[in-house]
Amino acid sequence: MFLLALFVRVLAIPLSIIEINPYSKGDANGFEASAIFIANQLQNGVVPVVRIRYIYEVWGFLLSPFWLLPGPSAIYARLLIAILGAIAVYNIYVTACWYQSSRAGVLAALPVAFFPSFVLVHATLLREAVVIFGLTTTVRLIFVPSRLKRFEKFTVVAVALGLATVVRLDNLPVYLITIFVGILAVYVKNRGRRWALNMTFLASLVSIPYLIEVLQRIVGFLVMVHGNRARGRTAYFKHVVPETVAQFVAFSWIGAMYFYLTPFPWMVSQPSDLIVFVEAVCNAIYGLAAIKGVRLFLRRNASGTFALLVGFGLISVFYGVATANVGTAVRHRQMFVWILYLFGGVYLAHRVEIRY
User: Fold this and answer.
1) Which CA distances in Å does 164 have to 61, 127, 158, 159, 284?
2) CA distance 100 to 11
3) Beta-ladder partners of 235
4) Do 185 and 307 touch, CB atoms closer than 8 A?
């Protein structure tokens, strides 16, 4: 699976170099220009100023070493990203394989390995491959036993999750909540539900006033992002904007559904949309299978699975509300839709084994 995934990504790199790949323009060109600029600064002995909230500077700085090497730097950088995307496929396969079977590993990893949108994005200088690499590495090391010692394992997890966070800083609050929920779930398992309920009650008394204010700020930020993205040929929900926490909650599940399942049939207007439409149909199939696949994971790692579900739910809601364009949704959902493939692939393999 790793070699096949890497092979198709390497084949797609020339399409990015000559910009036939639709994902090789826009942000990808901006990241390359930033990397070249920072590399020139380094060559001239100038220490670049990298501001953590300016992603062009951060990602450009991380890519800049390739432009200090002799030869085709742009190909080197894209090759590394393709490798990271292929490692993500390997991580998904290993996780599903350990929970069910090699058949489950193939079914779970297949969409990430070969869906055209994944292959094309992973052949560019965009960040999605880095995020999915970091998240799948974290999940694999937490869910699947390995030969690494505890310190070594958590060091690798910290580096992988840190890399995913640096290139997508907006996701950090969800990562922190997910980690907190996972730790809390472990304590519940070890100390019992009564202790957890008492701690949750005490924490809620202190945090509820602040939580409402934080939620309102989050809603305001997501509404702003929503307005910036509600443009172009594939835009949707241009005039549907939740302005209060109550409206945000009511709209959240609709936005999340559009985030993972668009384009719907009435949104297909060009031949190229058909490819993404087929991917969306597969997402729906895996999503339905994932509902029952979660149960299989809960049997072997209830704490980790519960934390992963909480994180997936939160990130889906936030991106679902903030996203209002099919093109943006197809690209951004790659960071998280693999969780549906993981749960769904395990259940589909389970059903096949029961039948045969």
Assistant:
1) 15, 9, 10, 9, 26
2) 31
3) 325
4) yes
Cis omega (within 30 of 0) for bond into 263: yes
Closest of 236, 341, 350, 210 to residue 287, by C-alpha: 341
At residue 95, the pLDDT reads: 95
Contact criterion met (CB below 8 Å) for 263 and 326: yes
- Strand (E) or helix (H) holding 148: none
Cα–chain center distance at 271: 27
86/77 Cα distance (integer angstroms): 14
pLDDT at 205: 57
Give the position of tokens 């951004």. Answer: 332
Q: Kindly tell me the burial class for residue 240, based on how many C-beta atoms sit within 10 Å of its own C-beta (0-12, 13-18, 19 or more).
A: middle
Counting Cβ atoms within 10 Å, is residue 164 exposed (0-12), middle (13-18) or buried (19+)? Answer: buried
| Residue ranges, the chain, pLDDT below 70 | 190-212, 353-356
**Contact assessment for residue 275 and residue 145, using Cβ atoms and an 8 Å cutoff:** no
pLDDT one-digit tens code per residue, 172-203: 989 998 998 888 887 777 666 666 666 666 66
CA distances, 150 to each of 45, 158, 184 (Å): 40, 12, 19
Q: Helices then strands (H, E): number in the chain? A: 15, 0
Question: 302-322 vs 271-300: helix axis angle to the nearest 10?
Answer: 150
Terminal alpha carbon distance of the chain: 24
pTM surpassing 0.85? yes
- SS3 category, 168: coil
User: How far, in Å, CA of 336 to CA of 309, rounded?
Assistant: 11
DSSP-derived secondary structure letter, 79: H
Helix axes 73-99, 128-143, angle to 10 degrees: 30
pLDDT value, residue 208? 61
Distance, CA of 48 to CA of 274 (rounded, Å): 44
pLDDT value, residue 210: 66
| pLDDT at residue 191 in the model | 65
